[in-house]
Amino acid sequence: MTTKQRFDGCLSWFQQNMKSAESELHYENPFQLLIAVMLSAQCTDKRVNLVTPALFHAYPTPAAMAQASKEDILTYIHSVSYPNSKAGHLLATAQRLVEAYNGQVPDNIDDLQTLPGVGRKTANVVCAVIFEQPAMAVDTHIFRVSERIGLTTNSRNPYQTERQLVKYIPAEIIPKAHHWLLLHGRYVCQARRPKCSECGLTPWCRFCQKEKTCN
Known about the structure:
Number of helices: 12
Radius of gyration: 18 Å
Structural class: mainly alpha
Largest sheet: none
């Protein structure tokens, strides 16, 4: 099976069976999504969704958050992973949005990565979800699933995974493909015990072909 055949088969299955794939983070505008994605680093979306309603009520705009202190923000996000560093990044990002971008979230990956605490993955998520750009964000689920299925080969870091994926995924469906792979990794192709008996991708999966456990 060629790599293209594997991509074609997997993408076709996703298109037919996961038509409504979207972010599980709760947000109402670009600023809220940016903050939620920053908080989600090494933390579950479920936990983030528990803390953001009060946080967004207290700080509905970058200008409002920019006026807070790190300690103020920390009281709202203390239950997420790495709360101290994230509180500092949220404050610094809000201040930079006000100072450099007139309180608006940038619509390109380069400018987004000038925000404190915003890396390529977060920038890609914002560009794909909010601005519908062909940006492939690679988290731990996508990194693992892509290699296991065989969509990537010998990928050593998220950037290599990103480059291999966008080579074969049509630009117009890259934002949705991000969610397809992420949700598949979160609920089906899990790290320790992939649920191969429940997976629709087994006809194209390199792991199943190698282990011969999915037939």
